[in-house]
Design goal:
By secondary structure, the protein is an alpha/beta fold. The protein is built from 12 helices and 15 strands. The relative contact order is 0.10.
């Protein structure tokens, strides 16, 4: 009697398809197994087996994109098929780049114009970066993006609210939907990016919703990995560039001159490497990580260093919080991207938490990069031509604090 073998295949990076292949044993003739010479009992048993396989409940199949092979690098297969929500943002491009360089297949759901994600296409080997249009409020659209992945990374974020998406939508409802659908789809790892200062009692609406989002993700997907980075700096960031652009106002407005606020910024490459290492770390499931830089600075000293590195005059002046909020309100009503908002004024002047009980970058094998080593990558563009090529060593490092 022929020995039936069942193979699980998938269309190239698409939905798995089952094929039932029945092969005769070496002692049977081909015609005896499948042809006219086969006995009625044999044909009926094959038919019954095929019917049972085709009508059994659908199962999540293991396809070749999940089987690691090769010598590492972008042309190998790491075994990771990752859906990265928010990949077109500041942090997303670094995460996609690291995933692509290790041979992962990356699915990028997008809502933007096609020209806004084209820079991500060459970050992986041919056919390994897949773009998928999605609707953030439609669970079926989310399910289509995650159903063939074993890793889902949520980087969705927004610095300011819009008429279509407020902070509750971005930081609570969308992450909750992603977590629920990922759990239903059998995703192995979900990584959710929050914020170091996320607190339900925070004066910032941004940080309050971040805290609620963490709770909802944990409830929907208990094994989720939650990462809480501090303010992130790097090329094209909205942190060091934000301070450097303050010179357009003839001075640097800071609440209490920034001498009551302590910051501990972290380098974007360290954060992206930490996310990828969390994907590879089997013991990371269900943990919460705090990603921070190696040094803490007073906000005053940090901004002073930004202007020293930019070779621009540093002219700080104290501005009462209510006056700063009123000015920020004027930027909010602008039809263009706001330079600042009332909520950002609050976030900038909140001292970064210290969470020694949580694992950090070191627990994932990453040595945090000091601000002084990488700030020039961000700030060189703010220099005048005279100082464009001046040495970094000429600038005195920012003072650090231990509280």
């Amino acid at each position: 009697m022929p020995t039936p073998w069942t193979f699980g295949f998938s269309r190239s990076r698409a939905a798995p398809v089952q094929f039932l292949l029945a092969f005769p044993s070496p002692t049977h003739k081909f015609t005896g197994a499948f042809g006219k010479g086969s006995a009625p009992g044999e044909r009926s048993s094959i038919t019954a087996l095929a019917t049972a396989v085709l009508h059994r409940p659908p199962q999540r199949q293991l396809h070749h994109a999940l089987i690691p092979h090769g010598r590492s690098g972008r042309s190998s297969v790491s075994g990771v098929v990752a859906t990265v929500f928010g990949a077109t943002g500041f942090l997303g491009r670094y995460v996609v780049n690291h995933l692509g360089r290790m041979g992962s297949q990356v699915i990028i759901p997008y809502r933007c114009d096609t020209y806004d994600y084209m820079h991500l296409r060459p970050m992986g080997d041919l056919g390994q970066i897949i773009f998928l249009e999605w609707n953030a409020r439609n669970k079926d659209s989310i399910r289509r993006a995650v159903e063939h992945s074993n890793v889902v990374i949520n980087l969705v974020g927004r610095d300011w609210e819009t008429k279509n998406f407020d902070f509750e939508d971005v930081f609570v409802k969308i992450p909750q939907a992603i977590a629920q659908v990922s759990k239903e789809a059998g995703v192995e790892k979900l990584i959710h990016i929050s914020h170091l200062n996320a607190d339900i009692k925070s004066t910032s609406r941004y940080l309050r919703n971040k805290a609620v989002g963490e709770k909802e993700v944990r409830n929907a997907f208990p094994e989720a990995i939650i990462i809480k980075p501090s303010d992130i700096f790097g090329r094209e960031d909205r942190y060091l560039n934000y301070f450097a652009n303050m010179r357009c106002f003839g001075g640097i407005p800071l609440v209490s001159l920034g001498k009551k606020t302590v910051k501990q910024p972290v380098y974007v490459v360290d954060v992206s490497k930490g996310i990828v290492n969390a994907v590879k770390e089997p013991d990371a499931r269900g943990k919460t990580f705090a990603f921070v830089g190696p040094n803490r600075y007073l906000l005053f000293d940090l901004v002073q260093y930004v202007f020293a590195m930019s070779h621009r005059p540093f002219l700080p002046y104290p501005l009462p919080r209510f006056a700063y909020q009123w000015i920020a309100r004027l930027f909010e009503i602008s039809p263009f991207e706001p330079w600042t908002t009332r909520d950002k004024v609050e976030r900038v002047h909140i001292t970064d938490m210290t969470l020694p009980h949580l694992p950090g970058l070191e627990d994932l094998g990453i040595q945090a990069t000091p601000l002084e080593l990488k700030a020039i990558e961000v700030l060189r563009r703010h220099r005048t031509y005279r100082w464009l090529s001046s040495e970094v060593d000429e600038v005195k490092p920012a003072k650090t604090v231990n509280f």
